[in-house]
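can u pls check wat happens w/ zinc ion
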Amino acid sequence: HLQEHTHKRNKMPKCPSCDKEVYFAERVSSLGKDWHRPCLKCEKCRKTLSAGSHAEHDGKPYCNNPCYSAMFGPKGAASTHLFLEL
Ligand SMILES: [Zn+2]
Ligand SMILES: [Zn+2]
């Protein structure tokens, strides 16, 4: 296991998606971060994701299918950064 006891300056974690505080009741943990449940969604198609059952690239969540396999799977590995220029 990775070390989990990093010091937190704020009690409330910030959602990496919207940068607002995440309250316990609406929190989902994925990719080692805490998200608002509705904020954990595919960067590309905006489909809501379930914690722990989605793909990740560059710290951002993606659905396994079709987005991650299309962009980063064997077929789409060469076009990694296309979508970042939105
Ligand atoms: Zn959020
Ligand atoms: Zn998607």
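The radius of gyration is 14 Å.
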